[in-house]
Every structure is written in C-alpha cells, then in structure tokens.
Amino acid sequence: MTEPSPISGEQAARDAAAKQRFIAISLFRLSGVFILMFGFMIMLQKFAFVSGDQAKIMGAIIATVGMFQTIIVPRILVRAWRTPPGE
User: Do 73 and 36 meet the contact criterion of CB atoms below 8 Å apart?
Assistant: First the structure.
C-alpha cells in the first residue's frame, strides 16, 4: 500500500488560507441575503418602528446594500485574493 506524499508546510498554509477565504466569502454572501430580506421586510412594513413612505424608502436603501453585499463584495474579494498566474 502506498502512502500519500506529505504536504509541505507552504502548501498546508495555502490550503488553510484558501479555506478561510472561502468561509469569509460565504459569510459575506449569507449576511448580504439576510440584509436583503430585512430590507424587503421593512418595505412590507412588518416592523412598527417605520411606516408609510418612509418604510419603502428605508427598505429600498437597505435592500440595495444587501444586494451589493451579496453580489459585488464577494467578487471584489475573489479578485483581491486570486492567486497570481505562475504560482
């Protein structure tokens, strides 16, 4: 039976960093979805602290922030953390 080759310390560090980055990107997406849902709930006036046209405006702003965090922020992080070619 052949034993797998041991992973070098540098490769193990890269793998650990990749896992942490994946978790960070996933958490940004998940929190963006929660912010988006919160914004929609405000627009539907499910909370007593805001009502009327103010609820629609405030909900739209919060939902826009949630969309930005769900779609744009992970792409920015992926681009920033991308491994340069040749490594």
Answer: no
